[in-house]
Amino acid sequence: MVMASWTKLTYYRRLFIGLVAYSAVLVGSFAIFQYYREKDFKAEELNARLQIINDRILEDLSDTDSVHISTAIQPHSFDGLRISIINTEGKVLHDNSLDSLPGSNHLGRKEIADAMKNGEGYTIRRHSESTGQNYFYSAKRRGEYIVRSAVPYSVTLHQLLSADYGFLWFTLGMTALMCLIGYFAVRRIGIHIDRLNRFAEKAERGEQIFDSEPFPHDELGEISANIIRLYARLQQAIADRDKEHRQALHQEQEKIRIKRELTNNLNHELKTPVAAIHVCLETLISHPDMQPQKRNEFIKRSFRASERLSQLLADISSITRLEEGGVNIVSAPVVIADIAAEVCEEFVVTATEKNVVLRNNIHRVAPISGNAALLASVFRNLIGNALAYSGASEIVLDCKDLGDRLVITVDDNGCGVPPEQLPRLFERFYRVDKGRSRQAGGTGLGLSIVKNAVIWHGGTVRVENRRCGGLRVTFTLPAGQ
Questions:
Q1: Is residue 219 classed exposed, middle or buried when 0-12, 13-18 and 19+ CB atoms within 10 A define those classes?
Q2: What is the pLDDT of residue 213?
Q3: Which member of 241, 281, 428, 437 lies 3.0 to 4.6 Å from 442 by CB, making a disulfide possible if both were Cys?
């Protein structure tokens, strides 16, 4: 259970707890060592003071047999100071605090044993079981005598020998400060690790990763940010690749669909004039004695069907050349105003018969680089469609020079086109009114030729219904030669 709770903690919290534990052990060990070291130092300092008294008494013993204890201890007065003189056999020869000398052997006492061995020694020991009083003993040997001085281990002496607790509090304060600094340092590292962990989880699940959340500004932050940035770029590259693959697959499927649709439409469109020609010729062959008027009517039908077939083949040839890149189409300086004027002149008679006003407002336009035949077919198809299908009373051609491009419009005030059919007007063989288009002799390829011709020139084309009624076709052409 403890292990489970431990693993639930975040990495930087576990790291911080480990850092605190390490700091506590390190500082605690140092504090304990320093505490006992300071305590021993103070005990040795007290021992040195008592040894001065012991030295003076030993000097007196070496000069004379009399012992002037009071003179020796006066400069180093201690409350309750005891002086004992012991010979090398462990017998007490003198003690200033006892009426009668004890008969026990003192060689077993630690301070006496150390003095016998090393010349001096000290210890803290209870004086007797009855009094329960502890003494600090300091002994020194010189020749046949051992002088031992002792002071009661009172509250004052205990405070003197105790370590300085201010150092311990200072150590604890520094430890707390170090832990606080360590917490922020570890937490900073934890932010990196936490983000990298979330990044790894998202990467494993294949989620989209965005390089938006900032990292702290340090070396580890830069490394982490670079890792995530590189992965995000790789992920974006994979997504772009998949998208391009899907688009390529869609385009390929669309090409197959269009090719199949074109084949079907072409088959259907060719069948109509061929069938008409076949029926007319078969009728003429079957009835050699047909009246001249009737014969002429069948011949005219065959001629119109052959004309439509010829126009259809010519349009298909134009679209094929344009879709193949138009490598055989020559570009040269042309004047749009002249081309528009020539095409309008072609439709003057037809427009007059249909009571349509054909107004050409394209004048004084600088020459551009293009193919005159293709641009003529653009105007020819747009004007022809407007005359054949719109039912308009007016067709207006206009042009605006915007410096880098020409914007040309062909407007009519006719019936327009249903909005849902506008996007399909440039499809091959698409007709808004199939029956009416065939009666007018259209092939269904005119607007497709317009689109491909404009694209070949590097322009764009669009169609829309006018607010006041009718249809507007707008196409652009790059200006300049």
A1: exposed
A2: 61
A3: 437
Q: How far is CA 149 from CA 85, 108, 447, in A?
A: 9, 17, 127
Do residues 43 and 118 touch, judged by C-beta distance below 8 A? no
pTM of the model: 0.42
Return d(Cα 64, Cα 58) in angstroms, integer.
10
Please give the Cα distance from 382 to 446 (Å, whole number): 8
Q: Is the dihedral of CA 137, 78, 59, 101 positive or negative?
A: negative
Cβ atoms within 10 Å of 78's Cβ, excluding its own: 19
Q: Which stretch of DSSP H or E encloses residue 407?
A: strand 405-412
Residue 300: both structure tokens together:
């005219």
Alpha-carbon distance of 142 to 50, in angstroms, equals 15
pLDDT band for 475, please (50, 70, 90 cuts).
very high
pLDDT given at position 72: 46
Total count of residues recorded for the chain: 481
Buried b (16+ CB within 10 A) or exposed e, 365-398: beebebbbebbbbbbbbbbbbbbbbbebeebbbb
Decide if 321 contacts 328 (C-beta within 8 A): yes
pLDDT for residue 411 is more than 90: yes
